[in-house]
Amino acid sequence: MEKGTDFHDDQMIEEILCDKATLLILQEAVAELDREEQKLIENLYYKNLTTREIGKEIGVSHMAVVKRHKKIIDKLKKFF
Questions:
Q1: Which among 24, 30, 51, 72 has the fewest CB atoms less than 10 Å away?
Q2: Is the pTM of this model over 0.85?
Q3: Are 29 and 76 in contact (CB under 8 A)?
Q4: Owning domain of residue 73
Q5: What angle do CA 49, 40, 71 make, to 5 degrees?
Q6: What CATH number has the domain bearing residue 41?
Q7: DSSP, residue by residue, 16-52
């Protein structure tokens, strides 16, 4: 709004605020992960590597990466 954006709908403002709040919670949750867990999240979601590529890089099977990913996601869900 400070930059001159007009919002036509209160619902739109509410959605933007909820999205920002969710993003802040997610950032805090990821910061609580250990370095190895953060690296896995970074590789999957920011570098768009596959579980096979990550497994090859760290020397484990892709199923081990899938299991680690699931544990991390479960950990992150607790923050929400």
A1: 24
A2: no
A3: yes
A4: 10-77
A5: 120
A6: 1.10.10.10
A7: HHHHHHHHHHHHHHHHTS-HHHHHHHIIIIIS---HH
Q: How many angstroms separate the CA atoms of 28 and 26, rounded?
A: 5
Whole-angstrom distance, CA of residue 65 vs CA of residue 32: 19
pLDDT tens-digit series, residues 9-67: 666 888 988 999 999 999 999 999 999 999 999 999 999 999 999 999 999 999 999 99
14, part of any domain: yes
11/25 Cα distance (integer angstroms): 21
CA-to-CA distance for 31 and 37, rounded, in angstroms?
Answer: 10
Structure tokens at 58: 């760290």
| 5 falls within a domain | no
The answer to whether position 3 is within a domain reads no
